[in-house]
Amino acid sequence: MNEKTIYQNLRDEGFSRRDFMKFCGLVSGMMGVEFTGAAKALGALAGPEPTRVAAEALASKPRLPLIWLELQDCAGCTEAISRSQSPSLVNLVLNKIAVDYQETLMAAAGFQAEQAKRESMKKHHGNYVLVVEGSPSTGEDGVYCTIGGRSNLDLLREAAEGAAAIIATGNCASFGGIPRARPNPTGARGVSEVITDRPIVNIPGCPAIPEVTTGTIAYFLVMGQLPKTDSLRRPLTFYGHTIHDHCLRRPFHEAGKFAESFDGEGARQGECLYKLGCKGPTTYNACSALKWGQGLSFPVQSGHPCLGCSEPNFWDGGGFYQGQSAPLDRPSAAAIGTAAGVGAVLGIAMAGANSLRKRSAGKTAAPPDKGSPE
Amino acid sequence: MEWTDILRFFHGPFFAVSLIIFVGGMTYRLIRIVFLGWPRDRVESRGSKAVGVVRTYLKGLLIFPFIPWVRRTFGKNALTYIAGGLFHLSLFLVIFFGTPHMLVWKSLFGFGWPTLPTPAVDWLAAIGLASLLILLVNRLTHPVLKLITKAPLWLNWSLVFLPFLTGYLMTHHILFRYEVLFSLHMITVDILLIWIPLGRISHFLFYFFSRTIHGAQAGKRAVAP
Amino acid sequence: MKTQSAINTYVKEIGGWVASQLEACTRCGLCADACHFYQATGKPEYAPVWKTELLRRAYEQRFTISGRLRLALGMDKRLTDEDLKRWSTIVYEACTICNKCAMVCPMGIQLGPLIHDVRSGMAAAGVVPADLMSATMKQKDIGSPLSVTDKIWAERMEWISDEWEVKIPVDEKDADTLVVFTSIELMKFPDNIAAITKIMDKAGEKWTTSSKGREAVNFGFFEADEELTKLFLRRVFEAAKELGVKRIMISECGHAYEAFRWTAANIMDVPKGVEITHIIRVMYDFWKAGRIRLKKGVYDDGTVTFHDSCKIQRRGGHIKEPREILKWLAPTAFKEMTPNKEQALCCGGGGGVISIQEADPLRFAVFGMKVDQMKEIGAKSVSMVCSNCRLQFTEGVAHFNSDVKVRGLTEMVSEALE
């Protein structure tokens, strides 16, 4: 393989060595992971320092082929990434690492594009990263989402077969997302529920935070393996804490100062949004730590309660503006009425039986035994 | 099976089922008693039954149910009065005036109300927990209580204690992750809702029968209830 | 057989009134310390909540699904003869049905009446302390638990008339008030009968006694045997009807007042338009209306206190009448015991307890608490308006070698008549 390494590519594009080291610093910062394993993996040469590890990797590895599949999606995750302001973060990953197929962003279309994709998959069989956006629809053999006449399940399995790793970006690919909301007519599922024999990592969010997606891709590039994840396959670095854990409005929460409405004094003072439906306490994501827009803000900071969009089934989580403590399912008035009615009927029946028992006891009560005292 | 799934289930469909069982069960208990026969009182009253009822509710409910109105009964029963009273105070204030709980009522009734400051509710919950523990020790050591307590009463204590405990741990982020404790809280609350119609925790319903009877009996004889 | 009678009786009595209160109990145990028997002995079995246990079992095991299940699965105990015997001792000898427990219960449960219901099961099963049962039989057969026959009654009344120089009307038509005495007064406190006679005459009341309705005491009520209770009440009601009186006045007796005034109408037909009252109320009304006049301060000779009788004060409401009288008779010497009025401590002799010899140690143990109460205020004398209490106090102060004088209030009033 005479492929140029990433370093070589960068030098060709006019990056100085200094620029490269800065670049590596950014990459390693973005990956934000523990390095002991990496240090061992790359041998003692690189040492524990993150930047050097990234530098070693990027200096010795060629560009990574990447296939980006979109299934039942809104392309929001793509939009989020491509709207990202900082060239160094996103460009570096998507441009310095080869993206051979990206439905939304690529210029090519139609059967030719499909053809190009299949060729790339064949060429890099076993080595490419598959990024999936949008949920597979399992209903009726996947007929609800087809591309070029082929079902999405078919396409997904085909792409997954030769992938070195799969990154499911966005809530849809991770857990089924909005298509999975009740009543889930298309049989939407998370990718990991359809593909069970390849290494998969979930990057949920609606959309996923761009830096988290690209950071995970960078991690795979540098380390050659997927990062450590929680039980829902979310990278621990980014999903190890809840929004609540790092929320800037936490002191208000603890003090019990809650905004009562969006235009009230509490909202103006930046008070806690729990009463307005914030799902922060149970939502694992990097929003309150890493934030959005390169650390500009995140929903709560801007005054909107957290939707819980990195958690499974958040669309059925009781409603965005219903307090998190409120039950997700309420019995209908009819159900309660029926329960009371049934209880009443049974109560009258039991009382009736008891009354009958009383009457017969009254009749059969033997005359008092007034014989000799004990 | 993830804790998020467990939470969804016990905070969602199972909660609705528990509530239905609670309503049906309590209605059954109530109706079963109401229709058991209430003979008319043909004895002529000396005083007013209604006045007796009002007075007894003032003393027994509206002022504070745990004031020992009868002289020289506090000394030997200080623990029961104090811990019992504080427990009930904590229970009512936390359940109705704690912000997260108020939001539950709001979703069920359609309207909410102002709540107590979180640190105050926090203290109340801690007092409630401590009171429950004191009451447990009391029940384990007092000779009369040992005689009259059987298994269902221990279950009563446990099923009331666990929601208190899990709720407290949850809001303080102690021991386990938030969604784990939230799930445990919902599991214990759901079980409690199902158990209430089956045992003596439903005393809160029958209280109104016995109190009214007491007030009427006293009022009839023109005696202070 | 016995247990079946008891259970049938319980089942018969358990309506909404009983059931709702049994359901209300939270097993808090506060009633124990309200019970003077528990206070005096510390025995957990004397806790009122435990006294009602048989009733609770009968209710749960017959009337509730969970109770029936538990019984069927062997998780709950069936009522046995031993249970009846054991509880018979507890409810007849360690309870005076004073109902102090109901005042302390946070739920307001009427434990006294419920314990009375437990007794009725015992009565149906014939498991009643021997002394009590034989006294009841005497009242049934002879007309008085103290074996006072018609002849003895008549002779005794005559003797009292002679001794105290009063005329006691018997079976007189055209009377407004029928006065019913107790055998206890007749035999033990005859001065009371004389005292009442003097007061009624002084007030110019048209009154009489009846040779047929001559016994106020109701041992059927103590036993909680409804048929016998009704029989003993009927004897007086028939007499009242025959004599055409406007009211029946019970002399100094507690449970008689409870039976006549607060129970009779709910278990039988009572004579229409006939008021039922007690001597304390009658003499109070006489005094207030000026029909009798009392010398002020006649008993200001050392601290005087008043013992509230459970059935007349707590269960009867006549709390202010004796106090107003005593404050007139002993303006500076009158002192209240603590607790008092409707919260007063029972003397320990009521509810039939005093008639059961086996219960003597218990009733004296309780009375020790009354002695302490009187010592606390330095009482030199105590008065009451119930002969049963008076008998318990008389025997009690002797037992404890106390020098407190025991006086009936009626006796005090009659001696203070101007």
Describe this structure in words.
The complex is a heterotrimer of chains A (374), B (225) and C (418). With 374 residues, chain A is an alpha/beta fold. Chain A contains 17 helices and 7 strands. In chain A, the strands form 2 sheets. In chain A, strands 2-1-3-6-7 form a 5-stranded parallel sheet, with helices on both faces. The radius of gyration of chain A is 29 Å and the shape is elongated. Chain B is an all-alpha fold. Chain B has one domain: Fumarate Reductase Cytochrome B subunit. Chain B contains 10 helices and no strands. In chain B, helix 3 (49-63) crosses helix 10 (203-220). The longest helix of chain B has 24 residues, at 118-141. The radius of gyration of chain B is 20 Å and the shape is globular. Chain C folds into 3 domains: 2-127, Fumarate Reductase Iron-sulfur Protein, Chain B, domain 2 (Orthogonal Bundle), CATH 1.10.1060; 133-288, Rossmann fold (3-Layer(aba) Sandwich), CATH 3.40.50; 304-415, no CATH class. Chain C is 54% helix and 6% strand. Chain C contains 22 helices and 7 strands. Chain C has helices spanning 2-13, 16-24, 36-41, 48-51, 53-63, 65-72, 81-93, 100-104, 111-125, 130-141, 150-164, 183-187, 190-202, 219-223, 226-243, 255-267, 279-288, 310-314, 320-329, 360-377, 387-399, 409-415, and strands at 177-180, 207-208, 247-250, 275-278, 304-306, 381-384, 405-408. In chain C, helix 21 links the parallel strand 6 and strand 7 (405-408). The longest helix of chain C has 18 residues, at 226-243. Chains in contact: A-B, A-C, B-C. Chains B and C meet through helix 2, helix 4, helix 7 and helix 10 of B and helix 2, helix 8 and helix 16 of C.
CATH fold name of the largest domain in chain A: Rossmann fold
Secondary-structure element sequence of chain C? HHHHHHHHHHHEHHEHHEHEHEHHHEHEH
Task: Tell how many strands the DSSP assignment of chain A holds.
Answer: 7
Would you identify the CATH architecture of the largest domain in chain C?
A: 3-Layer(aba) Sandwich
Distance between the termini of chain A: 111 Å
Which strand order does the major sheet of chain A show? 2-1-3-6-7
Shape of chain C: globular
Could you tell me the strand content of chain A as a percent range? 5-15%
The amount of beta strand of chain C, in percent, is 5-15%
Total beta strands of chain C: 7
How many helices of chain C?
A: 22
Mean pLDDT of chain C: 95
> What is the name of the CATH class of the largest domain in chain A?
Alpha Beta
Number of helical regions of chain A: 17
